[in-house]
Amino acid sequence: MTDGSSVQPLPESEAELAFEGALRPATLSEFVGQPKVRGQLELLLRAAAIQNRTPDHILLAGPPGLGKTTLAMIVAAESGRPLRLSSGPAIQHAGDLAAVLSSLLPGEILFIDEIHRMARSAEEMLYLAMEDFRIDIMVGKGAGATSVPLDLAPFTLVGATTRSGLLPNPLRDRFGFTAHLEFYDASDLERVLARAALLLDLDISSSAIAEIAGRCRGTPRIANRLLRRVRDFALVHGTGADLEAVRGALELYDVDPLGLDRLDRAVMDILLTRFDGGPVGLGTLAVSVGEEAETIESVVEPFLVRIGLLTRTPRGRVATPSAFRHFGVERGSGPFLTDDL
Ligand SMILES: Nc1ncnc2c1ncn2[C@@H]1O[C@H](COP(=O)(O)OP(=O)(O)OP(=O)(O)O)[C@@H](O)[C@H]1O
C-alpha cells in the first residue's frame, strides 16, 4: 500500500498539454468508443445542418479525461462553426458571462468547461441566454437601477461537467441533449493507444498496448500519458517499446496492475487500514488523504466504484470484499479510527 510519499505519476505540464492537443481526434469518426454518444451527436448535428440552424445546447458529463473537451471541438469542426472556449472558474460574476455572450459571433459554439463552478448570478443570466438568446443587463445601482435587454447572436452552448448533480435543474433542463461519457473498455483503449502510437511514429508491440490499456483507469488521457512515459523509458534504456518497457515505466511511475495511482491507493489505504473498510464519510476520507472532497468524489471514486473496490452507501464509503483481497488486508486487524475527524 502507499506511504503517501511516492512521485505524482502524471504531472500536468505545458509539454503534456501540447502532447494531448496533438493527439486529439478532430472528427466524430476519429473519436474512438462511446458509440451511443457519437450516434446521438451525429444525429443532432445533421438535423441542425439540414434545417440550417444552430445545434441544440449540449451538456457533456463524466469523469476527467474521457473526451469532453475533444467532443466540444469536434462539434464545432463538424458543424463548421467557430469555437469559443471558457470555463466555470473564469466566470465569477454575471458581468464576466455578459462579456463573453455579447461578443459571440452568429452560430458560434461556446464551450464552458467545469460549468458547475460558474457563479450563481451568471447561471441565472445563462438561463435566459440559452432559451431566448437574450440577456438583461443591470445599469445603475440601488433604487435607480434598471435592466436593459440585450439581444444575442444565436449560439450553441456546450457545457462540460464532472459533477452534473451539482447543476441546478433549470440549467440542466435547458440543454437539448446530455451525453454521459463512460469509462472506456480495454479494446477501445487499445484503439486509442494504437492511433496515438501511429501519430507519434512509435513502434510498439501489441502486448505492450494491451498492458497499458489495462492500467490506465479506463481513461484515454491517462492511456496517452502512460504511452509517453513508455516511449521515454524505451528511449533512455535503449529498448523497444515492448511489454518489459511498459512494466518498467509503470513500476517507476507507481501505477499498479489495476491502474490505480497514488491517490486511489491512498484513499483505499485509509479506508481499509484505518477504518476497517468503512463506512466513512466523504469529508473524513478527504481530510485523511489531504485532498479536496470534490477531487475524491469526481476523480477518484468513479473509477474505484467502476472496478468494484468501493461502494457509496447512505452511511458513507465502504470497501468491498474484493478491495480487502486486492490489497491483502485482513478485516478486523485494527486498531481503527472512527469517523469523527
Ligand atoms: N474517444 C477518444 N478517442 C481518442 N482520443 C481521445 C478520446 N477521448 C479523449 N481522447 C484523448 O484524451 C485526451 C483528453 O481528452 P479531453 O481533454 O477531451 O478530456 P476531458 O473529458 O475534456 O477532460 P477534463 O474534464 O479533464 O477537461 C485528449 O487529448 C485526446 O487525445
Summarize the structure.
By secondary structure, this protein is an alpha/beta fold. The protein has 14 helices and nine strands.
Please give a structural write-up.
This protein has helices at 14-23, 35-50, 68-78, 94-102, 120-132, 169-173, 186-199, 206-213, 220-237, 243-252, 262-274, 282-289, 293-306, 321-327, and strands at 58-61, 83-87, 109-113, 134-139, 146-151, 156-161, 177-180, 310-313, 316-319. The chain is an alpha/beta fold and 341 residues long. The protein folds into 3 domains: 1-23 and 184-259, Helicase, Ruva Protein, domain 3 (Orthogonal Bundle), CATH 1.10.8.60; 35-180, P-loop containing nucleotide triphosphate hydrolases (Rossmann fold, 3-Layer(aba) Sandwich), CATH 3.40.50.300; 262-327, Arc Repressor Mutant, subunit A (Orthogonal Bundle). A hairpin with a 2-residue loop joins strand 8 (310-313) and strand 9. Residues 2-10 have low confidence and may be disordered. Bound molecules: adenosine-5'-triphosphate (ATP). Adenosine-5'-triphosphate binds next to helix 1, helix 3 and helix 9.
Which ions, cofactors or small ligands are bound in this entry? adenosine-5'-triphosphate
Describe the largest sheet. Answer: 5 strands, parallel
Report the order of strands and helices.
Answer: HHEHEHEHEEEHEHHHHHHHEEH
- Under the CATH scheme, which class of the largest domain? Alpha Beta
Strand content: 5-15%
Instruction: Please give the domain count.
Output: 3
Average per-residue pLDDT, rounded, comes to 89
Helical content (DSSP H or I, runs of 4+): 40-55%
- The CATH fourth-level homologous superfamily of the largest domain: P-loop containing nucleotide triphosphate hydrolases
Distance between the termini: 22 Å
Organism: Labedella endophytica
Binding site for ATP: 23-24, 65, 68-70, 131-133, 174, 184, 221
Domain AAA+ ATPase: 54-185
EC number: 3.6.4.-
